Amino acid sequence: MKIKIKNEEIRKYLNIETPDFPKYTSQILNLANQNAQGTRPEVVGQMTELIKQFKGRKLSEWQDWYIKQNPDAIKKATQKITEMVEKLKKAMNEIDESLINRWVRDLVIVKTFLGLRFQEAILKKVAEIKNVNYRLATIEEEARGIDGFLADLPISIKPSTYKVKASLQENIQAKIIYYEKKKDGIEVDYGEILD
User: What DSSP letter does each residue of 63-117 carry, written as one string?
Assistant: First the structure.
């Protein structure tokens, strides 16, 4: 049998008060901290290592011990996050309905299209690297698992997770280019077509 103990309950069991933050402020501070990287190990220390070194049992002991080890950490983190909050406030003043409309249009129209049509970008990039022509597959060729051609070489473009599913793979008569979507683009593995 499994149970879940929520953070509020853990605080209650350990007699740690739960701070009351105004609505939305925690979300804004989390965003500011992500951007400012205010609580990264280089600012506040490697917390998993520090907590292992700590020998006490009470919150007040931990606070005293931590501050002795890292006397300026809270101040530095606060300063970094404060600076980012000021930048976010400035950015908020630039947001109007027109900007929101452009953002939504970019998300719904452009990014959806890019997400669905990145195969052509992969073919184009690899063709450029190999200094050959490329073309997209016809509907008939797509039915055979081919996504395009580099010169005369048939190419199938698959997510990197496809490698793991070897037993499920259909018999594709093409070289495979693997890709993995990353936060900032696509990582492409075209090693299979190098020979």
Answer: HHHHHHHSTTHHHHHHHHHHHHHHHHHHHHHH--HHHHHHHHHIIIIIIHHHHHH
DSSP string, 160-172: GGGGTTGGG----
Question: Is the CB of residue 148 less than 8 Å from the CB of residue 119?
Answer: yes
CB neighbour list of residue 145: distance below 8 Å, 6 or more residues apart: 156, 170, 172, 173, 174
Pairing of strands 175-182, 185-189: antiparallel
Q: State the pLDDT at residue 18.
A: 85
Token pair in block for residue 144: 């055979």
pLDDT digits (tens, 9 = 90+) for 34-83: 999 999 999 999 999 999 999 988 999 999 999 999 999 999 999 999 99
Rg, Å, the chain Cα set: 26
How far is residue 102's CA from residue 97's CA, in Å, rounded to a whole number?
9
Residue with tokens 């698992």: 145
